[in-house]
Amino acid sequence: MNAECNEDVLGPKRDSLYVVLPLTIIFVIIFITGSIGNISTCIVIAKNKSMHTATNYYLFSLAVSDQLLLITGLPQEVYSFWSRYPYIFGSTFCFLRGLLSETSGNSSVLIIGAFTVERYLAICHPFLSHTLSNLSRAIKLVLIIWILSIGLAIPQALPLRVELINGTCRQCVISNNAYIEPVFEVSTILLFIVPMTIITVLYILVGIRLKSSNNINKLSTHARMQRKSSWKVVKMLVAVVVAFFVCWAPFHLQRLTSIYQKPTEETQETHLKIYAMITYISGILYYMSATVNPILYNIMSVKFRDAFRETFSCYWFKEKHVKAQRSHSVASKSNMRYPDSIDSGSQDNSMQSFMLSMHKNSLESTTMTAINNSFMKRMQLEKESLEVEPSKE
Q1: Which are the contacts of 71, defined by CB distance < 8 A and separation ≥ 6?
Q2: Nearest alpha carbon to residue 370 among 171, 104, 177, 178
Q3: Domain boundaries, given as residue ranges, for the chain
Q4: Which helix (H) or strand (E) holds 163?
Q5: Gap between the Cα atoms of 281 and 23, Å rounded
Q6: Fewer CB atoms inside 10 Å of the end CB: C or N, the chain?
Q7: pLDDT by residue (tens digit) across 1-10?
Q8: Which residues, including other chains, have CB under 8 Å from residue 247's CB and lie 6 or more apart?
Q9: Using the 8-state DSSP alphabet, how is residue 337 labeled?
Q10: pLDDT tens across 88-133, in order?
């Protein structure tokens, strides 16, 4: 059956090597750096009690969401670069990949919104924040966010299934375009436009509040230090939101293009080239969104950098101490057996510094591959209908 996948009907199995190879290298780098960043973020927050705050609990959940996106989406995306068809992973994996990718994307939006609200309350309404922003409440909110994300992901992933294209070739596609169109539209509004609007408004209010506070001349030294710290936090969170917007806007453009683009036979080739370019750009930025957050934390948060150094220098010190003890034990036993021999031991040449690489999209929400396959399927059907019409005349 797989041998009957006709390239004349379905198009080439992959793009040219000068396109596929650079994309593969970029995606592998994103996967490695993103995994290092997300896992390191989770370790730093988990191992340092000083990092156990409501905001950092949201960021911990965001790192988990990012890592889930990388694991469930990126390897198969790379595979599809080299072999668009036939689909070899089965219907269950086709659906689960869509469900998990959608869930991680939805949770990212909601988590960013949650800690933006938390920062807004802390700066603009500190007394209310003191009442609402506690660890137990943050944990409950994170759990609610994940449950809600799964609930929103189910209708987005339901149309995904493996079908026979041209009656012979298996592909993971969106089986019902009429169903997915309103789903894409609603998800773009609820999970992109509305959250970004709310987040932008809240940060404007935070900026106004901080600016008015800094205009007060008679501020104590302690108050000035608090304002300075607040500004650093706001800058970090604004950078996270801006990065999120840049990474996700092309993704939503690609999704909407896949359902709205209706080329004629004359413009079909041009539209396909434009769509392919949007797909590649949105794919890179979508998965890159899972790598940028720890970079922002380390560049803009002194507290996070200190906790990072403390955590991993502690691991290094323990490992070095254990090796030194073992070396000392061996030397002691050797001296007991051979009193005349002197073991000078060995000294470490240098400390190894650990550098955190780049840390955070339908799925791209219901998987980029499935959308592309569905888009190509619709294009083929429209082409066939255009070819049939002259014969009717």
Answers
A1: none
A2: 171
A3: 2-6+16-311+356-383
A4: strand 160-165
A5: 10
A6: C
A7: 444 676 666 7
A8: 285, 286, 288, 289, 292, 360, 361
A9: H
A10: 887 888 888 889 988 988 898 888 888 888 888 888 888 777 666 6
